[in-house]
Each structure stands twice: as C-alpha cells, then as structure tokens.
Amino acid sequence: MDYTKLLQKAVVTSCSVSLFWKIIRHMWSSMNVEKEPVKVLVTGAAGQTGYALMPMIARGVMLGPDQPVIIHMLDTKKAAETLNGLKMELIDGAFRLLRGVVATTDVVEACRDVNIAVMLGGKPRKDGMERKDVMTMNVSIYKAQALALAQHAAADCKVLVVANPANTNALILKESAPSIPEKNITCLMRLDHNRAMGQIAEKLKVRVSDVKNIIIWGNHSSTQYPDVNHATVATSSGERSVRDLIADDKWLNTEFITTVQQRGAAILKARKFSSALSAASAVCDHMHHWLLGTPKGTWVSMGVCSDGSYGIQPGLIYSFPVTCKNGQWSIVRGLKIDEFSRAKMDATANELIEEKSLAYSCLG
C-alpha cells in the first residue's frame, strides 16, 4: 500500500483526525515487522559462564534490543539435569526476545541451523595434568563439534571459541572443519581487552567508555601483550594519549601488563571460581561488534587467523586489533611497533607456535 499517497490525499481532502491517525498506525505497523530469530548455540552451557551469559543473550545485550533469538544449549549427559533447570529459568524469565530454547546433550541437534556458535565447553588443565593430556581431550571435543557445525549449522555461522586454551582450540576447530570459512572462526580476547580498559580507566579515574584503542596481542594466556601505545582517552580538551596522561612508562610497561595477564588467576584466587560474569559480558561485546560493527575510529581485540600481518606466522589464531563492518572483521594495518612491543608480540607468538605443534601432533 502506498501510504505516502494516502497521506497526501488525506491532507488535501482535510480528512478526519481519526482517519489520519489510522493511516499513521498502519504505516507504523507495516514498518515494525519483527526480524527473523537468530539461533545461538552455547556449548558447555550448564557451567557458570553459561549461566551468566544466557540472560544477556535473551535480553538483547549480544545482538541488540530488537533481535529475537532462539537459544541452543549443549552440555554433557552428566550435566543434563542442570541444563534442563537452566531451560526452565529461561522460560520463567519471560524474556521478550526469546523465541525458543533447545537444551540437549546431542551435538547434532544442538548445531542444527545455528547462526552463531559460542564454544564455552572444553577440558581445562588441572593439577597433575600434562599439556598434551589436555590438548588430546580438547582435540577430541573440538573435532566432533567442528564436524557437527560444518554439517548442520547455517552456512554463514559465526564461531567464537572461549574455552581454554582458546586460541589453540579455535585452531583445532579450524583444522577439523575446513569447510567453515576461517574468517568465521574467532577466539575470545575481548575479556583481556576489557580488563585492560578497566585498569586504565581506574588509573586515570575516567569512565571506561572514554578509553579506546587498547590492543591485546597474541595468546589468551600469561604471555599476552596489553599494548597502550595507540590508545587514547576522551577528555574535555579532546582525545589524548594514554601514555601522556598516565606519564608513568614504568607502570605501563610492568605492573599494568602483569595485572592484565594475571587477572584471571587473581579472580580465581579471590572467588574460588573462574571469571564468569566478566567473561559472559565479553562474549556479548565480541559478538555485538563482530556482527553489528565497531564505531568509527575504534578497534577491538579479537583472536583471528593470522594472514602474516605484523610478522605473525600465517595460520596462527592470534589476537590483533580489528575493525568490523557488515559481519566481517579486518585487521588494522600500519600501526607503528616499537622494539619493546616487538619482543612481547614475538614471545606470545612463539608460545602459540608451540601450542600449534602440540595440537597437530594430537590431531595426527
């Protein structure tokens, strides 16, 4: 229906107020068509991070306030009862964007037609375990899940690996499902990025939203390199360099870096549980910017497949500064790298090269 012509006619003929508003209501309802629901898979959903993440997804924190979602939750048979309890809570939450919940221990059912996959499930390293033992278990998990995603997920499914070792688990998934475009496989570095922004904001006593363009380079481990050399803070006199405002290179090159690197361990020691709330928030931030875009002039840190940028070995899942547009990420080019940064970036790359070699030996 051509509402423009109807309105013009209404004005010309001096129609009644009630008819005028009837036309307006019809116009509004025609424009306010609900979007198709997005299917979001969360593996390892019965854990603490899954418990924190589900209401965020259902409330639109991840995909926006007008995007309906159907949540697919996957966990082990041992966690089936807990998973069912979480499904009941999601239903009881009466979330206006939630259009359905699938709670299952079947990887094929979980992966069917999903548009987004958030991989929380994995085997963490525990006391007395060798690195190869952990890697072998994760290879088994991620090979099976990669195959299910490749065969049953939507063709353009975006995958975010969170379970540690996140970078190498993402690498295993990439190698196990070559039909999934490597640009669609990422790992979570946004938690470290947010931690770094939080430390700078606290140091300068500014809002965290005023801090931008921090970079986390490398691995989601204690070798990662939080880099403020290109970061700025919005002030009343305009944007200013973080280094200039803090004016303490010693703190920035030592305590700041180690605080961000070891933040997860510090939270584990304080809570007796690993980071869950902040990790869930970071998952939402990561997917929100990947799918809906980064603000102009701003980048974020994402673990993505290296194309050789900044001298990093191609094929590694390495954290770079990226911008996002139309559901695609692009590595920020041409940033100046000083000698101190180069050494830090290479050290974390070398750790990832070792992990890659170990993963390949487990893959056979």
From TrEMBL:
Sequence positions that bind NAD(+): G44, A45, A46, G47, Q48, T49, G50, D75, N138, V162, A163, N164
Keyword terms: NAD, Oxidoreductase, Tricarboxylic acid cycle
Domain Lactate/malate dehydrogenase C-terminal: start-end pairs: 190-357
Catalytic activity field: (S)-malate + NAD(+) = oxaloacetate + NADH + H(+)
EC number annotated for this UniProt entry: 1.1.1.37
GO biological process, one term: malate metabolic process
Binding site for substrate: R125, R131, N164, R195
Domain of life from the UniProt record: Eukaryota
Active-site positions on this chain: H220
InterPro entries: L-lactate/malate_DH, Lactate/malate_DH_C, Lactate/malate_DH_N, Lactate_DH/Glyco_Ohase_4_C, Malate_DH_NAD-dep_euk, Malate_DH_type2, NAD(P)-bd_dom_sf
Alphabetized GO MF terms: L-malate dehydrogenase (NAD+) activity
Pfam families found in the cross-reference section: Ldh_1_C, Ldh_1_N
Entry similarity comment: Belongs to the LDH/MDH superfamily. MDH type 2 family.
Name this protein carries in UniProt: malate dehydrogenase
Source organism of this protein record: Corymbia citriodora subsp. variegata
